[in-house]
Structures are given as C-alpha cells and as structure tokens.
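agent> Task received from the user: take the single chain below, predict its 3D structure, and emit structure tokens. No templates, no multimer pairing.
agent> Plan: (1) validate residues, (2) run structure prediction, (3) serialize to tokens, (4) report one or two observations.
agent> Step 1 OK, no nonstandard residues flagged.
tool_call: predict_structure(input=
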Amino acid sequence: MRETIIIGGGISGLTAAYTLAKAGRAATLVESAPTLGGLLQTKQLGGCVIEEGPDSFLAAKPAATALVKEVGLGADLIDSNDHQRITYIQRHGKMVPMPDGLMMMVPTKLWPMVTTPLLSWSTKIRMGLEYFRRPPDEDLPERSVADFVRDHYGQEAVDYLAEPLLSGVYGGDPADLSVNSTLTRFVELEKEYGSLTRGTLMSRKQAPAPAGSLFKTLKGGLHDLVRALEARMSGVERLAGKAEQLRYTADGYEILVNGEWLATKHLVIATPAWAAADLLADLDPQLHNLLRQVDYSSSMTVAVGYYDRDLAQPLTGFGFLVPAKERQTLVACTFVGRKFPHRTPEGVSLLRCFLGGAGRAGVLNESDEQILAATRADLQRLLGITATPAFHSISRWPRSMAQYTVGHAQRMREVDARVARHAGLHLIGNAYRGIGIPDCIQLAREATGKILA
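)
tool_result: status=success, residues=453
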C-alpha cells in the first residue's frame, strides 16, 4: 500500500510530488515519457536557449515565482524586456504594431487607437462609443469570446484582436472559447460597469498594476525548474510506465502499471483530461463523459536561427501574430532575443514560430522538411527573410492545450461534484482552472494540501 500515487510527470505532477516529499510524505510518480516535465522542455542549439514548449509565465500570478525561489532558482529568474514590448499583427500583408494601451482587445489610450491602421474608422468609432455603455439589467448568459467581443466592439475587433490573441495564448478559436472561463475579469467588468473600456480604466485607477515585467522565465530555460524539482524529491519513487487501469479497493485504489497492480490511499491524476477520462471510465462513467468533453488543440513550435549579418533588417519588438483571416501556416512568432535577455548569443537572431491550434492539427503530420519549407515561406512573405537558417528545431505537441469552450465552468462544477464522491481522488493539470504554469502549480498545491491535511 502506497500512501500517494501521482500519475503524470508534467509540472502539475512534479509540483505535487515535490510538495509531498518536502513534507516528508512518501509518494510514487508514474510517467510514461522518457523525461519528466511534460511541455517544459529546453534545449541548447547554436548557442541559444530554445524552449520547446512554454517560454515563460505571467509574473502577476505568484505561484510559479514562489516555487522557483523555493527550489533555489531565484537568482536565475529573468524578466521580459518590456521596454521593447511591441507585438505586431498582420493586416493586409503588412505588420502593424498593436496600439499602445491595449489590454487584450480593450483600448485604454485614445490617441494610439485613433492613429492605428489596424482597425477601420467604423470600428474605432464603435470602440469609442462603447465607453458610454451601461451595465446590464440582469445577468447575461454565458457567451463565446467572439460573441462577447463582437457585442462590445464589433466583428473587426474579433478578427484582428481577439482571434489572433486567443490563438496565441490558448491555441483556440474565439467562436468556441467561453468568455466566462477564459476572460473572467472582463465579464466581471461588464457586469459592474457595462463598458469594458470604462471598467478597465476605473479598475486600474483603483488598483494600479504592480511594477515589474509582464513575463518571467529562467535564464537557462524552464526545464531547469523540472530538474530542480526532481533533485528535491527524495523519497519519491519514480516508475516509468503507463497507468492502464484503475479500480476500487477497500482501502483506496489500485492502478495497473506495467502489468502490476499498485495499491494507494490517495490518487493524484495529473494527465490531460482525455487521458484521465480513459483511466476513470470503469470507476465513474459520468466523470469519464465530463472529462471527455474538455477539448484540446494541438500545436507545434519551430525555432529557426539566423546570423544577423544574413538579415536584411534587424528584428524589433517581441514578435507577431497572424489573424486567421490572413493565416497561411504560422499562427504567431516570437523574437526570442528581443523578448528575453541571455537567450541568444551576440550576432544571432532566434525566431520561435507557432503552428497548429484549433482546427489545424493536421499540420503536425507533415514532415520536418515540409514544415521548415512552409515556415520559411511565411517568414519571407511576412518579414522579407530569404536567408537559409543557420539551425532549426521542431517540436510537436499533440492534444496538449486544453480548450475552455462554452459550458466549461458548469462542466467543472459537475466534475468537482463527481470527484467529491471518491475519497482520496484528485485531478490536476491545465484542463480545469487555468492553462498557465502558475495555474497548474497552484492547483497541485491545493491538491497536496488536502492530502497533507
């Protein structure tokens, strides 16, 4: 009988295992992949630090920063170069900088919105008049992000603000994503003020944004956090294998791993929802069905490195987004050395390109040669880069990004109710209440807190 078995060795499962180990409690970590960390994988190539998955986390959410410092990596934390933070959006084949003061799709500064060529005059006028919108008389039903933004600012704001931004963050389609689950704060502002613009301005006046950068990461890459957690998991048994079946026992659960039934009192499932659903199918068919309703998108990162001498013009800003209306292959691209210091050597530019997303999983099946050719064609079309890359790296992430579609909040309430029926069962990961690294860490801390209690 093991006290706790954790299935899944991504950042969620690792945080749970580390937290239990730190408290002196025994745990067993089951992971089928050859390396721990899930999407947090880092490689060194061409003198560059290349993140194969996420490259950073939001500084405003404290859970990740706290964990980094707790495992002794505080000195390696670096901030994004926010003084260079310009993001471009493609419009009619040209790169247009996002207007200053834009918070997602909400304008907070007048003149940048008046002068931007990103939006037409009819949309600018509509965005200005939105300031006078009154609060609704009653609670509004749950809507998609597209319906929500269209109602406030019009279709053009959906096409050239909400869609590229949500594709870049969630890999999702705003027509499917729930505004209540993905942009919760804006729903609250609408309820209180009516106008998102007025509500954003008022909330910033009442609680000014904290000083510091928008993003944080580790100098040597986010996999350093994985290694630090792994090094501090003394007493945690690690099993390489796949959890194949689950059943009740008188004292808890038994999990079939590598042909052997393992007994445990507490079970933490830190896998994607679709994998958790398969494991729970016999134990709780209703919970299985609920988890199966959590959709996922697939994505790919393609890092291409160039010598600066081969580029016709230097790269500026953090990168660019390509709206679906103008998209061919690339969804977005980050100029790594401009976004973070210490990531690229002098004289080298690293472009980290994103492909796939909602409805575009098929691109992951193409060969590396096809992917690289399509990426280079887009970079030539968008940035005028004709040079051959000095090096490149391709990483595929099938069914990796949870999609909080309309109805997600209600599904999660039903999931919570079902999980509560099973003593000792805990579900963690990006499928539930936040897709970011801090969200996953926070949910893992909450689950282990219940176990320790």
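agent> Step 4: summary for the user.
Residues 155-170 form the longest helix (16 residues).
agent> Done.
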